[in-house]
Design brief:
16 helices, binds adenosine-5'-triphosphate, Rossmann fold, 478 residues, 3 domains, BirA Bifunctional Protein, domain 2, 5-stranded mixed beta sheet, 7-stranded mixed beta sheet, alpha+beta
């Protein structure tokens, strides 16, 4: 089993993530977060919110509706240009993104030391992405380079075709073109259309940002790899409005801050890298992705984009409402430029699961342990009575209740202590506390560290402060 399969299986077994509508056989590319998963997710969104909104007094929060006026998506370009170039393998009947097949092929050439051919294909690929007939050019490269179906090994392709990714629905009872609306494919537009209101009501001055966490929907054609590519997912986005001409300095500032945030969540720096875009989107003047070394290779988790004034200008044009800002210091009017940081919440969760998963041999037994940073771990501490008598359960329950005033704590008295430890290792709980005979006499409990498995005794009345200290100072052991 590869790492991703192990994570899919652990996620279901322990309650991190389940296939959606599991009793009906699941729904493609849609997942539900179970009791542990939802805690992990909440911890991540809280950390993001704290970092972006609370730590910056010039960033405000927003929670816009998923359903928006349909003209929003004409203005944003999504109605006309939110397509993926897809190609079908007739042998396996599977559909692939043509650009991804070519990127993979280039990666393979590079990995096998064929640098010159790799460079040549890349040059052709970049030209194809910019050409007027992109699907045809991509198709030619696939044929010329003898790129085969990844699942079948066959060379039996259809043409490359474009598919729009927006989910459509209808508002009200009448189903016609007039009532057609979309499920938002990104949260960013909710921020742009509220730019003036948020700036005025929060009395912010440029540069300032608006941050939002929310669901987005894309009718992804190739939706595989667990929660990496879903049809319903969540984004954590921040749009930073700046004076035209200053965008590159803010772009660099946000690149540095966003990379650091992932490291602060416990991701090893060597598992993260920057990836520049081969082709900038029509609205961007700079774009870099943060990529993570997933089991299936380096993949994007967050995009940092300098979007110029494209979005605000288009909304001004389509709505007829001014999107200008008057700069009181420079005494000038302008439409601000935008630097955006756009992270996938679910991809962040998948990254944390991959980063945390470890298998170890302990006394000839396999131990599966999720070494999450304690600040993101779903449960911070578990409390066990050594045996179910002599007042130990009551003392342990009282301690768990006390800890719950500080963070998420869990009480467990079933099975041997060894079994209870193993369950908590799989849940990624950083500390297990045992109430035993000595506790009943001296008030001291043992605390077992998830990573080192070292146990120490501390007075139970200090447990909350002691654990908070340990969580803050955590670092990953080699
Ligand atoms: P990709 O190239 O992988 O489709 P993208 O470049 O279209 O991603 P953006 O539009 O920049 O992605 O969206 C920002 C972030 O939203 C991505 O970095 C990713 O983490 C997340 N994201 C985008 N599409 C999905 C999806 N279908 N499922 C889960 N997360 C997604």
């Amino acid at each position: 089993m590869d790492l991703l399969e192990k994570i899919v299986s652990l996620s279901k077994r322990r309650g991190f993530i389940y296939p959606s509508s599991d009793i009906y056989g699941g729904l493609g590319a849609t997942y539900d977060y179970g009791p542990l998963g939802v805690e992990l997710k909440r911890n991540v969104t809280e950390r993001w919110w704290r970092e972006m909104v609370y730590r910056h007094d010039n960033i405000e929060g927003l929670d816009a509706a998923i359903l928006m006026h349909p003209t929003v998506w004409k203005a944003s370009g999504h109605v006309d240009a939110f397509h993926d170039p897809m190609i079908d393998d007739k042998a396996s009947k599977r559909r692939y993104r043509a650009d991804e097949l070519i990127e993979r092929h280039i990666g393979k050439l590079e990995a096998s030391g064929k640098e010159k051919p790799a460079r040549e294909v890349r040059t052709r690929f970049v030209a194809a992405l910019h050409s007027d007939d992109m699907p045809k050019e991509l198709h030619r490269i696939i044929l010329d380079e003898d790129i085969r179906g990844p699942d079948s090994g066959a060379f039996d392709w259809t043409e490359v075709r474009q598919f729009n990714l927006m989910f459509e629905t209808h508002a009200g009872a009448v189903v016609d073109d007039e009532t057609k609306i979309y499920l938002r494919p990104e949260t960013a537009q909710g921020i742009f259309v509220n730019f003036r209101l948020a700036q005025e009501t929060a009395r912010q001055q440029v540069p300032f940002g608006i941050a939002q966490i929310g669901k987005a929907f894309r009718n992804e054609i190739v939706a595989r790899r667990f929660i990496f590519r879903m049809r319903e997912f969540e984004q954590m986005e921040m749009q930073y409005f700046v004076r035209p001409g200053t965008q590159m300095e803010h772009f660099e500032e946000w690149r540095a801050k966003r990379m650091q945030w992932h490291i602060d969540n416990g991701i090893r720096p060597e598992h993260l890298r920057w990836h520049g875009h081969e082709k900038l989107a029509h609205y961007a003047d700079a774009a870099f992705d943060v990529q993570y070394a997933f089991p299936m290779g380096w993949q994007e988790i967050e995009g940092i984009h300098s979007r110029t004034d494209f979005d605000l200008k288009r909304h001004q044009e389509f709505s007829g409402k001014k999107m200008e800002y008057f700069d009181p210091h420079r005494k000038e009017k302008y439409i601000p430029y935008v630097v955006e940081t756009s992270a996938g919440l679910d991809r962040t969760i998948l990254m944390l699961l991959c980063e945390a998963y470890e298998e170890e041999r302990v006394e000839d037994e396999k131990r599966i342990v999720m070494k999450f940073h304690p600040e993101v771990a779903p449960v911070k501490a578990a409390v066990f009575p050594l045996v179910k008598r002599d007042g130990m359960p009551e003392t342990a329950q009282a301690l768990a209740a006390d800890l719950r005033g500080h963070f998420n704590a869990f009480y467990d008295d079933s099975g041997s202590i060894g079994k209870r430890y193993r369950r908590m290792d799989e849940a990624g709980t950083p500390f297990c506390i045992t109430v035993d005979g000595e506790t009943m006499e001296t008030g001291a409990v043992t605390i077992r560290d998830r990573d080192s498995m070292i146990q120490e005794r501390i007075p139970k009345n200090n447990a909350a402060d002691y654990l908070k200290d340990r969580m803050r100072s955590w670092s990953r052991s080699a």
